[in-house]
Amino acid sequence: xxxxxxxxxxxxxxxxxxxxxxxxxxxxxxxxxxxxxxxxxxxxxxxxxxxxxxxxxxxxxxxxxxxxxxxxxxxxxxxxxxxxxxxxxxxxxxxxxxxxxxxxxxxxxxxxxxxxxxxxxxxxxxxxxxxxxxxxxxxxxxxxxxxxxxxxxxxxxxxxxxxxxxxxxxxxxxxxxxxxxxxxxxxxxxxxxxxxxxxxxxxxxxxxxxxxxxxxxxxxxxxxxxxxxxxxxxxxxxxxxxxxxxxxxxxxxxxxxxxxxxx
Length: 263
Known about the structure:
The chain has 263 residues and is of the alpha/beta class. The chain has helices at 2-30, 62-65, 76-88, 107-115, 128-132, 137-153, 176-198, 205-208, 210-215, 217-220, 230-250; strands at residues 43-45, 54-60, 92-95, 121-125, 157-161, 201-203.
């Protein structure tokens, strides 16, 4: 009897694995839907403000690049840089080593590129591809921790949006949705520990961002139903801006109050 039960359990597990593998292949076919490449976001933002510019670098994957945004001003990097310029009362020079399809293992190369610009602040969004491509999550978190540590060693202030809970992605169906949720939540927790140990500031996107995407997926997701729409990127910037400003004010990088008369 025990052998029969064990056999049934193994058969069920094998069937689940087959289903997950098939669904994962299906998602990989869905994700590369033909959309325009992300707009080129780099450049000087807030040039009307006086003083030397702050340099902000954005590292990570397609989320960091603004894949799915139609215009430069709709990308999360430009949205954050624009708001930072207003609150700092200084221009912001934006550089973006992030690229579409990047995984956490690509961060060492991106950090090397970022450091050539002598950044004052770095914003990182990475981890989704590590989850969906079944990379080692422990290694992914360590790559992120190393990246934060290298940036901090130069005096750069680092803010990281941790991996959101990927159960919100419309293309995912059970049981792959359950597995993606488990892996993404585990990665976010590991990322948080690594970021804090390295001296960075984590932003819990799973808590701050997921509710908006769950409530209005049609508006928040782009054409491929995997990457954010312009509205989704605007919401991302809105939840990331307060922690970004708080971190930079705590470090004395920007004034405690927004400079008067500078819109």
